[in-house]
């Protein structure tokens, strides 16, 4: 696969099929995202109610009840986020373990001609660094993106419900944010490719020098 190739959705789907042995944990983690989305906007909403209905009126009893509710919502969100991060990382580690075993069996079964033609640094980069990059798909990628999308949807719903005119004003800069994110992504991708190539070159250099010292 060329290093300059862009995101490959069929390859992504193929990688995601490795989650099937852990689909129950994956579905449970996805369920946690549905719980975290409303919890993320619950505390600001409770704070708004406290300020509008109790602070200005000097209702100490009402403020106390709302403060307890906000604290409870915070503790619940922290607990749910802990389980979310734990199981998301667990899925990533379990999947990467299976992938490492498959890669090890594949590499040890290759013909010797492959090792004569392929620099050892390139093989090391593919079997170590690339697998670590795949790990981010599970622990910091797909599941986290799903959680962020759910939270964003919930926030937009509340914003439109509160004031659709102000929400449209806020969303005016949204295309600019998308454009900036795209440019940043392209810059990061090119930098990552350079780092990956340098690591492969460095690994090949070290392997050749260390082998020559024997």
Give a quick rundown of the structure.
The protein has helices spanning 9-16, 23-55, 60-108, 112-117, 120-162, 164-170, 174-213. With 214 residues, it is mostly helical.
CATH class: Mainly Alpha
Oligomeric state of this protein: single chain
For the termini, the CA-CA separation is: 34 Å
CATH topology: ABC transporter transmembrane region fold
Strand portion: under 5%
* Spatial extent as radius of gyration: 24 Å
Give the number of helices.
7
Q: Report the biggest beta sheet as strand number plus sense, adding barrel if it closes.
A: none
The H-level CATH homologous superfamily, spelled out, is ABC transporter type 1, transmembrane domain
Molecular shape: elongated
Counting DSSP E segments of at least 2 residues, the number of strands comes to 0
Helix content: over 70%
CATH level-two architecture = Up-down Bundle
